[in-house]
Amino acid sequence: MITGVNHVTLVVADLPRALAFYVDALGMALRAQGPRSAYLEGGTLWLCLEQGAPTPRADDSHIALSCATSDFEALCARLSDAPRWKTNRSEGASLYVLDPDGHKLELHLGNLESRLAHYCANPPEGMTIL
Fold first, then answer.
1. Which residues, at least 6 apart from 124, have a Cβ–Cβ distance to it below 8 Å?
2. What is the DSSP code string of 20-69?
3. 91-96 long-range CB contacts below 8 Å, 24 or more apart?
4. What is the number of other CB atoms lying within 10 angstroms of the CB of residue 110?
5. What is the CATH number of the domain that holds 108?
6. Which positions ≥6 away from 6 have C-beta within 8 Å?
7. How far apart are CA 106 and CA 115, in angstroms?
8. How sure is the predictor about 20, in pLDDT bands with cuts at 50, 70 and 90?
9. DSSP letter at 97?
10. What is the model's pTM?
11. What is the mean pLDDT of residues 32-50?
12. How far, in whole angstroms, is CA 13 from its chain's centroid?
């Protein structure tokens, strides 16, 4: 049985630029760094940045990150210059930004229970809530 996300690895073209984004803008903690990779921590998320040649996706695949409600507006302000890739249409507050390598991120206030409660109140066609 799966118990959670172990870690996420993102390939980045410029490690110092990516570190500036994830540490300075998002507030993640740098835990280890080598010449071609770095390990960061954000809450329970373990993120590995690995230098290489990223290939951004054209679909809606993305990583959604949680934050405290009290931090949401400040994070949005720090990300004001980051390109947007989607407009929020979900039940909770969300900001959809691209990191410097085009990885799609969502800053989201909500959880699975709030999403399912929204779907119970507004059932999408063909969806069954279990």
1. none
2. IIIIIIT-PEEEEE-SSEEEEEETTEEEEEEES-----SSS--EEEE--H
3. 91/115, 91/117, 91/118, 94/64, 96/62
4. 17
5. 3.10.180.10
6. 46
7. 15
8. very high
9. E
10. 0.89
11. 96
12. 18
Answer whether residue 56 is part of any domain.
no
The pLDDT tens digits of the residues spanning 81-114 come to 999 999 998 888 999 999 999 999 999 998 889 8
DSSP state of 84: B
Residue at 108 is within a domain = yes
Instruction: Exactly one of 41, 50, 73, 106 is catalytic; name it.
Output: 106
Domains of the chain: total: 1
Clarify whether 106 is annotated catalytic. yes
Write out the residue range of the structural domain in which residue 111 sits. Answer: 8-51+61-121
Tokens found for residue 5: 């996300």
Measured distance CA(106)–CA(102) in Å, rounded: 12
Angle (CA) 71 16 95, round 5°: 30
Phi, psi of 55 (to 5 degrees): -130, 90
Asked whether residue 128 carries a pLDDT value surpassing 90, the answer given is no
